[in-house]
Amino acid sequence: MIDLVGSSLLIMLFLPICLMTIVLITLTSKGPIFADTPHRVGKNGTLFKMYKFRSMIVNAHHLLRNDPKYRKLYQQYKNDSYKLKEDPRVTPIGKFIRKHSIDEIPQLINVIRGEMSLVGPRAYYADELADQQKKYPETKQLVAEVLSIRPGITGAWQVSGRSEVKFDKRIAIDAAYARKRSIWYDIIVLLKTPFAMISGKGAV
Question: What are the pLDDT digits (tens) for 11-25?
Fold first, then answer.
C-alpha cells in the first residue's frame, strides 16, 4: 500500500520535472525518451524492463559490449564494478539528469506494476551479476539474499556512498537491508534520498 500510494503521489509531484526532461531529451539528442537497455534481474531472479529516462546515445549498452572502439572502456567498466566516472556515451543533458537521479523517476511506473519497491536493493543486469560473482565469489550468498526481495528505486547504498561503493560492499549493504528491512528503516532511507538527489554525491 505504501509503495502504491507513495509512487502515485510522487508521479504527480515530479510530473513537471518529467515533462521538462522529456522536452530536453527530445531537443538535444536523437532516440527514444526511455533508455534502450536490457532487462534487469528482479525478485527471485525474474527479469523485468526497468524504465529510465535515456541519458546516453542510442544503443549505448550494446555498443559498449560489442564495438571495438569501446573495448578498453568496457574493461574499465567491469573493473570498476560496472560504473564509469567518465563515460563518452552520456549526452550533455544526460550528465545532469544522472547526477541528480532524474533519470530514475520513471521507475515509479515499475513500482505501480509491482516489479519494484520505493526502497530496496539495486536492480542489476544479469551479466553484471554473473561477472561480479566471479570476481567476488564470496558474494554469492549475499546475492541470493538480495534477490529474495523486490529491488528499489532508492536504497541503503544509494544514500550512503552510491556509485563510489564497489560491488562487494554494495551487495553487502543491500543484503543487510534485506535482512533487517522494516517500514521505519524505509522511512529513514526515503528521508535521506532527497539530499542524495540534490547533492549528486557519488553519482555517475
Answer: 999 999 999 999 999
